[in-house]
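Problem: given the chain below (212 residues), write out its structure.
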Amino acid sequence: MRLTVEAICTGTARPFNGAETSAIAKRPREGIVQLLEDGFAPDEQADRRVHGGPEMAVHLYPLDHHAFWRGLLDDPRLLDEPGAFGSNLAVSGIAESAVHIGDRFRLGSALIEISQPRQPCWKIEHRFGTKGMVAEIVRSGRCGWYFRVLESGDCQAGDTLERTEVGHGEWSVTRTFSCLIGGTATHGELSELAALERLAPKLRAKAAAKLS
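Solution.
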């Protein structure tokens, strides 16, 4: 799998909903961007309790999903932005069903690894001004995913995102999201997820908690 990165997007925390701030609005960067353990430098997250950190260093929301949302949003103009869903990487031709937990990708001189699906929250609906988006993401599995950074490096728009290793091949992002966020997991699947080496520790713990 070799795909072109159309844009690398980062953001700063800005007023969002009353006293709330958010950095969900990501804008394309020009030139070389440094990718470190916690993500692109600089790229902010307003609430570090639930966003950012090594297990959510880089977010990818497939550009192909934008076409799906155009028919559902009250105002689709934000979809003209490559980082509309808070995505750091603007990439077409990739989807949750085609990638797996632990898949490794070369991006410029950096090496990144899929760590977990993205769990949608109310900020998506607030940003787009459309109710029901979270439920639709859960229903459709159009969730996007996060990478951890295994090797820091430099990258830029136009670079290739190349898969160098398939991780847990039985655990696509689609299946993982359906089991842990959609609530479809069987007892056996929860046992597997709790022991899945390359899954983010918080989600492994979530699976283990559901077992008990």
